[in-house]
Design a protein that fits this description.
This protein is of the alpha+beta class. The chain has two domains: 254 residues, no CATH class; 120 residues, Roll (CBS-domain). It is built from 14 helices and eleven strands. A five-stranded mixed sheet has the order 1-2-3-4-11. A four-stranded mixed sheet has the order 5-10-9-8. Helix 2 packs across helix 4 and helix 5 packs antiparallel against helix 6. The C terminus is likely disordered. The structure holds zinc ion. Zinc ion (ZN) binds next to helix 2.
Length: 384
Amino acid sequence: MGGAFKIGRFSGIDVKVHWTFFLLLAFFAFIGYQASGSPLGALTATVTIVALFLCVLLHEFGHSLVAQRLGIEIHSITLLPIGGVSNLESLPEKPADEVKISVAGPLVSVVLALIFFGVGLLLGAVPRVPTDLFAGFGSVGQFFFYLGYLNVVLAVFNLLPAFPLDGGRILRGLLATRLGAVRATRVSSTIGQVFAAAFFLIGLLSGDILLALVAVFIFFGASGEAQMVKQRELTRGLTVSDVMGTKPRTETVTPDYTFGQVLDSVIHGYQEDFPVLDDGKLVGMLTRNEIMTAAHSPEKYSRVRDLMKTNVPTISSQADLFEDGIRILQQSGLGALPVTENAELVGMLTLEDVAQASLLRPLSATEDVSGIDDGATSQKTASR
Ligand SMILES: [Zn+2]
């Protein structure tokens, strides 16, 4: 995410803050000052927001650490004015894993709430719903009690079945066991968008701009992820034969071709690498690199036989494109692999083929959006 900078690292996960977060701090410092008329009010409001975002960060770590345990890599957690975002390498494949990851965040918030309520009461807080954030808390105990309250709100809001909030992810995970990933995502993202529209209206009507912003975030998050899951399903199980250049479209050469003939093919054709066939049997590959090297000293290489690479790895037409195709291509260091079926050449798989298929596939990291309520709720509290 652009505009975010790193403030720390824990368990291999970068913690980042988006610069707009400081606008939020300044905004609440201002509100706090206005409401109380003293710098202490500004300080109280700022400390509250920072404490709240530390809770959001712990909520996100709840998601991220469980995801890590389930074998998903986490790049970073970013704090935005509307909440925290965990940046996952990939979406969990198993519905049960998604449910576990999604539950972990709100669970952390509930535990934090209990701890803060306990600390607050021990310090003599009066148990009541706080209404006077910017007039000061009266006591340190009341401040902890208020933090407990905010964590309850954090857990409850995130458990709403408004995909991509945690509750929506839990719903999707539960639906996916029956409906499959694509339909489950479609159903939950539709519900998410209905919630988003409602939040947006409520936000506008009550003047709660942050809630309206959160609504926009949910709306586009829902449709974006539905699209991504659909693509993932579309490209799942692609085999080499689905994207390779077939034999009729692949120009081959024989070991007896002269260098001049091959150079002509490279210059006038689209192909850069050529399978070498001897009596119909694959004996090697002639790559663009060798052709270009030979172009400098054509007298040394008169025939393809002298130029070609032998012992070239091949790939089966039925091999998985992303699992095996990319791996073998990378290991070979070649731009193209001969594709075989029963030891016979049936086509050629090039880096371009893989790249084109990748365009259909969501290779980029996906974002798990959660804990995004806090700003909105704090503001509501402030205006109450
Ligand atoms: Zn969450």
